């Protein structure tokens, strides 16, 4: 097999155009939303110096890259009717999909640690969450995700592919790609589930425990401090729920492809990166204020 046919992109012409327009609108929203967050944090020194916003800026960058791996290719495939991708491009897409997705998982876990220190150890927050610590957390997230993705891709690369070269999906992922392999993939499936599934479920459980500790600690805070902390933590928990849900659903069970997989995959790769900027800006007074100031300076500069 040298070419993979993506059956998810083989739709009637009218439906293909409608789906392509929706994907392009979603992608535009992701670009504008995440770029706005990154530029606002970089332009506002007070936010740039904050560990929470430093991690948020990195999360926005990952979201931007994560959805760029699949969404433009899906939209172009639907518009052109060209529903094929070479095996090399398929494996490259798989690599970056897992690399950036795993980076987001680790960054969300790092953000939970940041909130835990800020609420449970406020007097030591500046010392614990120093610039060096934040840089190490971000670098560790990227390096850990790189190791994970290399393992996934190497497992997929070593398999012989002899068809049929059709996968019922919108993009290349491990589960649908294993259906093209002409050998027993049971061991690979176990390794993938124990790798990706363990990371997703493990980090999710760590997040639940950390937020349980945070909620218990909030009882000692003042009413104003409790309201502000709950607002930040609620936004983070919403992002965690809509990102980890699809990951756990897809990667913690045996690889039997079902129709729901395609919908859940689209939720993770398109909808979640689009919702993250809305959740973090609409519920964040500091971010909204900084964006208004940045917009006001830009308007005055144009005049």
Write a compact overview of the structure shown.
This protein is 79% helix and 3% strand. The chain is mainly α and 303 residues long.
Radius of gyration, rounded? 21 Å
Strand content: under 5%
Query: Whole-Å distance between the termini?
Result: 59 Å
Spatial strand sequence of the major β-sheet: 2-1-3
Number of strands: 3
Shape: globular
Quote the CATH topology: Rhopdopsin 7-helix transmembrane proteins
Helix content bin = over 70%
**How many individual domains?**
1
Q: Which class of secondary structure composition applies to the elements? A: mainly alpha
- The CATH class assignment is Mainly Alpha
For the biggest sheet, the summary is: 3 strands, mixed
Give average pLDDT, whole number: 84
Low-confidence runs: none
Count of helices? Answer: 11
CATH architecture: Up-down Bundle
N to C succession of SSEs: EHHHEHHHEHHHHH
Q: So, the CATH homologous superfamily?
A: Rhodopsin 7-helix transmembrane proteins
Main location: membrane
Membrane topology: Multi-pass membrane protein
Transmembrane segments: 15-41, 53-71, 91-113, 134-151, 197-218, 230-251, 263-282
Keywords: Cell membrane, G-protein coupled receptor, Membrane, Olfaction, Receptor, Sensory transduction, Transducer, Transmembrane, Transmembrane helix
Task: Describe the protein's architecture and organization.
- The protein is an all-alpha fold and 303 residues long.
- It has one domain: Rhodopsin 7-helix transmembrane proteins (Rhopdopsin 7-helix transmembrane proteins).
- The radius of gyration is 21 Å and the shape is globular.
- The N and C termini lie far apart (59 Å).
- One of its GO terms (molecular function) is olfactory receptor activity.
- It comes from Terrapene triunguis (Three-toed box turtle).
